[in-house]
Amino acid sequence: MKFSRRVILLAALAAAAVLAVAGLQPRLGAERNNKTVAFVIDYRDILSLSYQSGQTPDAVLSRLKTLGVAGVCVEEYTGDDMAALSPMGARYGAASALGAVDQAVTRDRADVSLPSASPYAKLLTEYLAKKMPGSVVLKSSGAVSILLPGAIDEMSFSAFAPDFEALAFCTRNKVNAIFRPGPCTPANGRDTAAAFEWLFANYPCIRNITAAGMTVPGYPDLQPVAEVMKKHGVTFSSVEFVKQIGDAELTKRAYPDVLSLHSLTRDEIFSKKINRRQMLERFVRAVHERSVRLILVHPFDLQMGDKMETFCDDLGSLKASIGERGYAFGWPNTLPDWNSNLPGALACALVLIFCGWFFCARVGASEDKSPRVAEIAAVLLLSAAAAAAMYKVPLAARLAGGFSGAFFAAEAALTALESYRKPWRGAIGALFIVLAGGLSIASFYGTAAAALRITPFSGVKLILLLPPLLLLLHDLQRRIHPESVPEIIARPAIWGELVVLGVMMLGLLIMVLRSDNVSNVPAAEVAFRDFVERVLLVRPRTKEFMIGYPALVLYWYVIRRGWAAHYREALRITAVLAFCSAADTFCHFHTLLSLSVVRVLNGWWLGLLVGAVLALILHLIARRLGLRDGDKESC
Predict the structure, then answer these.
(1) Fewer Cβ atoms within 10 A, N terminus or C terminus of the chain?
(2) Of residues 570 and 528, more confidently modeled
């Protein structure tokens, strides 16, 4: 019994889906067990709440603990901070201005002075001896001066003094500390590591390092820093959407002892006009959709008065919303380490090779013919060879991912577009292809390192750009478009076509530039996204339910009516964007796989519904204008 190439493709995709599910078991197990979340708050915010509420800092923290706060951020002061705040009773300034006396002292050398009786004088002296061995300690009656190895202007933006008051606070209240060291130009990687070694030994409450400033401390020699952190079991947190020099390298060296952290800055809140409800929804999405496990919360000044009560109300609402989604509160664990697996490689290879093979058959108009046994055997052998290459050769794996996603997205689009006589059959078939291909990519590429964004997927741009080109190649070769490339070139340009082409190119450029970009989304779109999120629980992607799938339904309608033969190609290419976006969804490995599947399903049914409404409106307008069906043979 012979089978057509189409049937063979579907069988190969079904096999790929089965292999993908087998390869996904380590990831699914980690996602089920990684359900602990912690709120963390800056020590300075605790002090601010204490001042305004009339409660002691210990009492404030005790109340916040009941609302999910499990960590306190401890800053490392810069020279400017020391000058403005005089923490721990210290004075900061030029050595000459503070009265330091030494032949080696120049006029603008930075100096920190503390009273000899201060409990922090000895601590800061020992810490700076590790971090900046070039420091000079001068003792006089009643004071200790520490001459720093830098000029006053250089040390003004260098971080060098841990907030020992905050560390003592964390120790006394038995709460985890998140130390936030900043860049310090005189301290190299080894000196920074030595300072951390001293700090971890004296303050075991430090459980996490989250770098502050534009450069990670110790950069570029970060290996000593990572080794000390691993020795003491201290995790590293990379702040979402914040670009820091050296951040990616230290994350890679600290792996797998990495926890992601999310925060909102005051500037971002006010520039985007984010209200309290949107703030809470954003934090919930960070936890539930992007697997963030540390949330840095601030009592921002969005409401005047009753700062403590407002902040506690927000935390209570946030804790309830996160808890409703199955999360517990406490100090989170890091992800277990799992790597790419052979079943995932086989699944991805089957999708890549068989979809590529079938696309070639489509171009040659032989997709519904039965292939020879030798042809099937050759494709199977090529799939096995591709799987072996992907599993063993990193370069092959990087290249295969993008092409695999591009080919199955193009095949899903072509399956849907060609089924205009039986739309639901095509829609369901295209959804099956997307799910089989997406799960295959998630199975092989969705490792623990990818979930932590240490090894980002390199094929996203290819997935977004290549399918429209494959569709255009197919349509011109098969004369789906009524003209060939030579005919289009030979005739004068039609202004309508140029306008449509320009709009499409602009839209495609915006889509590519905005992929994985959350910083340039307009406030109105953020509000719309939040609304859809509340209604559907998992928000479908806009380019699926508002653009791609509606274009698919409109294409089904106009081709059945025989309209706009020269402009239908625009609808076809626009429809491809839905499947590109759905394939891209499975490449977000930091998102729970179950949410990715639901997001794709929501985009599918809602997009088809929106398209059906638009087609109905177009139909009513056509009836009103008395338009009739075109020549069906010209389609």
Answers:
(1) N
(2) 570
Domain count, the chain: 2
Cis peptide leading into 492, omega within 30 of 0?
no
Report which secondary-structure segment, H or E, holds 151. Answer: strand 143-151
Report whether 526 contacts 278 (CB < 8 A): yes
543 Cβ neighbours under 8 A, 6+ residues apart: 511, 577, 578, 581
Q: What is the SS3 string spanning 344-402?
A: HHHHHHHHHHHHHHHHHHHHCCCCCCCCCHHHHHHHHHHHHHHHHHHHHCHHHHHHHHH
Q: Give the closest residue to 570 by CA, choosing from 492, 508, 513, 487.
A: 508
The whole-angstrom separation of Cα 235 and Cα 84 is 31
Residue 52 amino acid letter: Q
301 plus 369 within the same structural domain: no
CB 548 within 8 A of CB 574: yes
Query: Phi and psi for 115 in degrees, rounded to 5?
Result: -65, 140
- Please write down the HEC assignment for all residues of 281-301: HHHHHHHHHHCCCEEEECCCC
Judge whether 552 and 412 are in contact, CB under 8 Å.
no
Q: Which amino acid makes up residue 61?
A: L
Is 134 part of any domain? no
**366 and 315 in a common domain:** no
Domain stops at, among 280, 309, 329: 329
Q: Which amino acid is at 205?
A: C
* pLDDT single digits (tens) 426-464: 999 999 999 999 999 999 999 999 999 898 888 888 998
Length of the chain counted residue by residue: 635
DSSP character at residue 302: S
Report the mean per-residue pLDDT for the chain: 88
Whether 531 and 451 share a structural domain: yes
- What type of residue is 335? L
- Residue 114 bridge partners (DSSP): 144
Q: Which of 301, 329, 357 is the last residue of a domain?
A: 329
Distance CA 618, CA 554 (A): 9
In a domain, 216, yes or no: yes
CB of 207 closer than 8 Å to CB of 170: no
Task: Read off the pLDDT of residues 184-200 as tens digits, 9 standing for 90 and up.
Answer: 999 999 999 999 999 99
Say what the pTM is: 0.86
Cα 378 → chain centroid = 39
Q: How far is CA 574 from CA 363, 400, 503, 602, 635, in A?
A: 20, 25, 11, 19, 18
348 within some domain: yes
Q: Contact, 74 vs 203, CB < 8 A?
A: no
Evaluate whether 550 touches 606 at the Cβ level (below 8 Å).
no
Is residue 97, in this structure, part of any structural domain at all? no
Domain that holds residue 617: 5-30+340-634
CA 155/CA 184 separation, integer angstroms: 8
